[in-house]
Amino acid sequence: MGKKTFALPYIVWMIGFTIIPLAMIVYYGLTDNSGAFTLDNVAAIMTAEHSQALWLSLGLALISTLICLLLAYPLAMILKSISKNRSSLIVFIFILPMWMNSLLRTMAWQTILSNQGILNLLLEFLGLPTVQIINTTGAIIFGMVYDFLPFMVLPIYNVLIKIGQDKVEAARDLGANGVQTFFRVTFPLSMPGVVSGITMVFVPAMTTFVISTLLGGGKILLIGNVIEQAFTSGSNWHLGSGLSLVLMVFILISMAILAKYDPEGSNVV
Amino acid sequence: MKKRIALLLALVLALTALAGCSNAEGSQEGEFTPGENGVVKVYNWGDYIDESVIDMFEAETGIEVVYDVFQNNEEMYPIIEAGGTVYDVVCPSDYMIAKMIENGLVQEINFDNVPNIEYIGDIHMESARAFDPENKYAVPYTYGTLGIMYNTNYVTDEEAATWNILWDEKYSQKIVMYESVRDSLTPALELLGYSLNTTDRAELEEATQMLIDQKPLVYAYVMDQIKDQMINEEVYVGLAYSGEVLAIQEENPDIAFSVPEEGSNYFVDAWVIPSNAENKENAEAWINFLCRPDIAQMNFEYITYSTPNDGAVELLDEEYLSNEDVFPDDAVIERCEVFEYLGEDMDQFYAELWTQVKASSTN
Fold first, then answer.
1. Which of A70, A208, B17, B188 is most buried per CB count within 10 Å?
2. A50 vs B78: CB contact, 8 Å cut-off?
3. Number of structural domains chain A divides into
4. Which residues sit opposite A96 in a β-bridge?
5. Where residue A101 sits, what CATH number does that domain have?
6. Do A91 and A203 belong together in one domain?
7. Which residue range(s) make up the domain with A189?
8. CB-based burial of residue A105 (10 Å sphere; 0-12 exposed, 13-18 middle, 19+ buried)?
9. Best mutation site among A31, A115, A132 for testing chain B: the one with the most B CBs within 10 Å?
């Protein structure tokens, strides 16, 4: 009885904010304007524009996830190797920007990267040729990496510091060199953190529409933008919901693939 | 966010539809007594009124104003349609008003309560007939044209006299377009010689192809950011509503505006009263107040969108009146066309066309 009462707010939360909205998306996604059942909204993903947007989102999300991983892992290793005090200071500095709204930070990058922006003024001042980064896929990848990097660093770092030094020393005693120790001991043991980091970067990168709008100048259409436009200017909630369902399936599949690499099956983020 | 709330409320409303209807009818009679209900709920574009006007209205009529804003017509419509949040008076654009009339979302205004309507110029009441054929539902608030905004340091007046400049490779990456399908299609349709209200799919596809060809030259598709990008000279030429120009010129005097010779869009924003309004008389008092010449003058000087109020025009400085960007002469208005509401199927088709433009390659 006591336990049940305690769980009640969470049950209400889950029903109100997950199950009902999800049911509404399924309802809208599988009906048309007159309320009749249809698969058209889901099948709409097959049109050239929509599937192109989906593949582009997938591609950009994969690239930014890979870049985040390549940047975050060495950083997490460094953090593990230095003293606790210094590493917590660095982690603190690293996540400090997250205290600001990510929309604001993305808008700041818009100002920095734009044609008359700070970066180009600096290049001009140094006598270097200016670059056009803003409104390209490059700018979007940059924005994703910048926004989501802390979500990769933290889980990897948290797993790494829990790997005891004794395991590394045992490997070395048994004759493994530094590289072998890393690939056969440290990296496999850190897999839960890597998988968790990949999920936390890949999913928001795959679904974002803010970063592509702000840094892509509205010229690059990701699947998130298609859905956003269906709901706003297109006022076609049925299409937006249908495409959202497709996107959810894509994310579920990628999480299922990732789960295979998580030896303990310990994380479901 | 508002939409989600609206959706929930819509569901609730749907469940109680019958009960809701009879309630509204029952209580309507009582609400016609003036002053009984001291509130008016206003729903307007963002930054589209001199806020001291609101205080003056409250002081003079004793009616409390509840004021909300929207960013575009498409955002406003579902809120009114769902009826979850009830507004007494709303200020949409022409084609959206036609859509609201068609779907029974607005009610006739009792013009006995709006004597100041006499100050609205006849020519403007006439152009309002494009979306409100009998002048029963809407009172014009502002009007203007869609045109080219350009930086005179880089672009000549002759070049900016035609929409062709938006396809000129010389200005590659210096062109900016509106993130709005009907506005962005306007130059293409005008160059092709088609109506802005065409429902011929082949014509629309041809115009869309022009936008796809243009895309590599376009710096960005944005809305309000156009102002900053023009002021900072990040771009040299772009689409703009005439009402934005004065404010931009204050920041960068090199910016000029033209309505290209091929023709363009002429828009009217007007006040309407939603069918489910709870304070109709107060809404009419609000509209009447805004039609008073001195109030219309205050609003014009703040928002700088042209006013259809002849009484206010008489009060304005010569400097404003001689500015053809703000008060276009008849020849300009004659080559412009008002957007009409084209029906739900066309709404959807336009949205598909826009997705094609946005998804097309950038180089």
1. A208
2. no
3. 2
4. none
5. 1.10.3720.10
6. yes
7. 68-259
8. middle
9. A115
Q: Determine whether the interchain pair A219/B351 forms a contact, defined as Cβ–Cβ distance below 8 Å.
A: no
Q: Strand B139-151 vs strand B175-178: parallel, antiparallel, or unpaired?
A: unpaired
Q: Domain extents for chain B?
A: 2-12+38-142+268-334, 144-266+338-359
CATH superfamily of B144-266+338-359: Periplasmic binding protein-like II (3.40.190.10)
> What is the 8-class DSSP label of residue A1?
-
pLDDT tens track for B70-99: 878 877 888 898 887 899 999 999 999 999
Residue A134 within a domain: yes
Judge contact between B178 and B221, C-beta under 8 A: yes
How far apart are alpha carbons B36 and B54 in whole angstroms? 20
* Residue B348 distance to chain A (closest CA, Å): 7
A37 within some domain: no
Q: Pick A132's closest partner by Cβ from B3, B173, B348.
A: B173
Judge whether A171 lies within some domain.
yes
**Does domain B2-12+38-142+268-334 correspond to CATH entry 3.30.420.150?**
no
A56-113 residue pLDDT tens: 999 999 999 999 999 999 999 999 888 888 888 888 888 888 888 889 999 999 989 9
Let me know whether A131 and A4 are in one domain.
Answer: no
Can you tell me whether residue B240 is helix, strand or coil? Answer: strand
DSSP codes, A14-29: HIIIIIHHHHHHHHHH
Beta-carbon pairs below 8 A across chains A and B: 68
Q: Which residues in chain A have their CB less than 8 angstroms from residue B233's CB?
A: 116
Nearest chain B residue to A49 by CA: give it.
B359
Mean predicted confidence (pLDDT) in A6-20: 93
> pLDDT tens, B224-275?
889 889 999 999 999 999 999 998 999 999 999 999 999 999 999 999 999 9
Tens digit of each residue's pLDDT (9 = 90 or more) over A33-51: 888 999 999 999 999 999 9
Phi, psi dihedrals of residue B145, rounded to the nearest 5° = -125, 160
Q: Specify if A225 maps to a domain.
A: yes
